[in-house]
Design a protein that fits this description.
five-stranded antiparallel beta sheet; 3 helices; DUF2849; DUF2849 domain-containing protein
């Protein structure tokens, strides 16, 4: 029996700033989870991950994260990914300070 595939997004950290970033369908790195490309095909997800991992001058630690379709774009499925959308939690500036959580 074939297992069902859970949609994925490609996520990483920006090399210089360290911010969490997401690969978009038009090959940009966005800091907004809802702009990420929701990948519903396992083979395509692997190709997108390889594409991301080759961008060592822009990002580090690229990986595939489970996601689901939402009304405004992909939404995190797991707590860890939801937490990453809120930005760093060890200082009061950035996304949390500006109220973009």
């Amino acid at each position: 029996m074939a297992r069902s595939y859970t949609p994925k997004i490609v996520t990483a950290n920006a090399l210089i700033e360290g911010d969490v970033v997401y690969l978009t369908a038009d090959d940009r790195w966005s800091r907004r989870h809802e702009e990420a490309e929701l990948i519903e095909d396992e083979a395509h997800a692997q190709l997108r991950l390889l594409h991301a991992q080759a961008q060592k001058n822009l990002i580090v630690g690229a990986y595939l994260a489970d996601a689901k379709a939402g009304p405004n774009g992909p939404e995190p499925v797991h707590f860890r990914e939801a937490f990453r959308t809120r930005g760093p939690s060890n200082y009061a500036h950035g996304k949390q300070e500006a109220g973009h959580v």
